[in-house]
Amino acid sequence: MKKMFTSCLLAVSAAMMGGCHGNESAAPAAVQTAQARVVESQQQQVPLNVRATGTVHARQTAVVSAQVMGRIQQVLVREGDSVRAGQTLVLLDDAALRASADQAQAGVKAAQDEQAAAQTDAKLAASTLDRYRQLQGEKSVSPQEMDEVAQRAAASAARLEAVRAQTDAARSQESGAHTMLGYTRLLAPFSGVVTARMADPGTLASPGVPLLQVDQAGALQLQATVDESAIGAIHKGMKAQVAIDGGNSTSLTGTVAEIDPAADPASHSFLVKIDLPPSSQLRAGMYGTAEFANGVRQAILIPRSAVVMRGSLACAYVLDSQGIAQLRSLTLGVTQGDLVEVLSGISPGERLVDAPSDRDFAGKRIEALP
């Protein structure tokens, strides 16, 4: 009985306490206030560009290789050396070809001597024929003697023509031998810079095997690949904004000089060559990006200073109708000067905290600084 009384007393006490708490109203939590500069997202027309990436090259590049087989005697240049057009770059062993040239030259001398003798004989035979014709008119020679003299003159003239043909053949052989001898000296095709050296003295040079690479001196080109879906927007002579990556990022205005007429069947892209203006910061082999104007489009832009990075995510503090900031993740597009395009996460006309730095504004009411 005592135990039941105690339980009832506890139940009544709990009910009374519950009733008292139920009549009390919960106090609202206070919202913190912070001051910050506030900016607004805006919708603007931005250029609709075709982007393409590529590499800087010389306008003309030559791979120097041998045209005859021979052992390399000397390589007279190294990577980075400047060369002039016609400068000797590589010397091959020319002993065998020089012997052939000397032999051909001797053959020409022998043919010339033989031609001189045949020419003398032909001249003498022609003079004898003229005298016999005079005597024939005076009836002082027999027909048989006349025939013999005429045959000797014809034979001498025929022999002279044959020897002349042999002399021409000997001269052609000599010219060919000297041409082959000239192939033992590899020359620079134009003024430029040696960008690669693939051979050293003592190695055997074979026709078509690269020995050196020379890039033409002067202005450079960006050779960029453009997808086949965008190639219709590009034409020869149009301007392109080019950004070159490097130690110091370089922005240039280039001109489309050439568009390959056929696409690469593997990548379905076209090679576009863009002439670049002279610049001391440009080097062949640098990576670059080209943008070609292709009309305009609507885009939502915000100041880059309003973007805050949380790890790898781009975010911004967006104010609601009560002026309370909420951290919202964004998908960003291209940069337009001090503005950046927002692909998703923000609508036009929304207010954002500018330059939040490392401060946490989430859940705070923002008082806009003037």
List the helices and strands and how they pair.
Blueprint: H1 2-22, E1 33-36, E2 38-40, E3 42-58, E4 61-65, E5 70-75, E6 82-83, E7 88-92, H2 95-137, H3 143-182, E8 185-187, E9 192-197, E10 204-205, E11 210-216, E12 220-227, E13 239-244, E14 250-259, E15 269-275, E16 287-303, E17 308-310, E18 313-319, E19 325-336, E20 339-344, E21 351-353, E22 365-368
Parallel strand pairs: 1-22
Antiparallel strand pairs: 2-21, 3-12, 3-16, 4-11, 5-7, 5-10, 6-9, 7-8, 9-11, 12-15, 13-14, 13-16, 14-15, 16-20, 17-18, 18-19, 19-20
Explain this structure.
The protein is α+β, with helices and mostly antiparallel strands. Helix content is 28%, strand content 39%. The chain has four domains: 33-45 and 298-368, Beta Barrel (conserved putative lor/sdh protein from methanococcus maripaludis s2 fold), CATH 2.40.420.20; 51-59 and 218-296, Efflux pump adaptor protein, beta barrel domain (Elongation Factor Tu (Ef-tu), domain 3, Beta Barrel); 64-93 and 184-217, OB fold (Dihydrolipoamide Acetyltransferase, E2P), CATH 2.40.50.100; 94-182. The chain is built from three helices and 22 strands. The strands form five sheets. A six-stranded antiparallel beta barrel has the order 3-12-15-14-13-16. The chain has a four-stranded antiparallel sheet with strand order 4-11-9-6, with no helix packed on it. Helix 2 (95-137) runs antiparallel to helix 3 (143-182). The longest helix has 43 residues, at 95-137.
